[in-house]
Amino acid sequence: MTSSPKIAVRELPLFPLPEVVLFPTRPLPLHVFEFRYRIMMNTILESDRRFGVLMVNPINGAIANVGCCAEIIHYQRLEDGRMEILTLGQQRFRVLEYVREKPYRVGLVEWMEENPPALDLRPLAREVEQLLRDVVRLSSKLTDRDIELPEDLPDLPRELSYWIASNLYGVADEQQALLELQDTQARLNRESEILTSTRNHLAARSVLKDTFDDIK
């Protein structure tokens, strides 16, 4: 009789944040001012410096069930007790149950692993990266601003998928859906759809801009 694989489970302090979705490998700066979260930060700074970030729906107050573990890599205490911290996303997790609510939430969580790819995702990643560059180029043209991608843009498919997802703005629900995907290919495919739609929209606006500029 074969034994089932063990699931890594642990208790994790939780920090719900409105419309904030953290992804693995991505930084998240935080200004901590609420007393209960100051207590939490002081506690975890004496242990492994890790806590979970969960997205909160600002409309109905619902807290997502899937989040990302954050590790504090730098912090500064302010004179009035507030804290400025810089965190880096680590593993994704799913909340199994809440074990404590006060003074801050603590959950029993299981780590979520990415499914291994069935094929080489580098060609797909290159296609998605080109779509991203097209969007940046068109955005720069339409706003008359010099917009550039960072030189250290990830070149590995999974890390690129996390980078793109973390830099989508104003679409927290979409980001949450991308975080919950356990397949890099599915995440890149969805990002390809988003970027293609954005590129087409920007391209149409660019044509209109050129037309009006010619009329002037």
Automatic annotation (TrEMBL):
Keywords: Hydrolase, Protease. Residues 12-199 form the Lon N-terminal domain. GO terms for biological process: proteolysis. SMART domains: LON. The keyword Hydrolase applies. The keyword DNA-binding does not apply. GO terms for molecular function: peptidase activity. This is ATP-dependent protease. The lineage of its organism: Bacteria, Bacillati, Cyanobacteriota, Cyanophyceae, Nostocales.
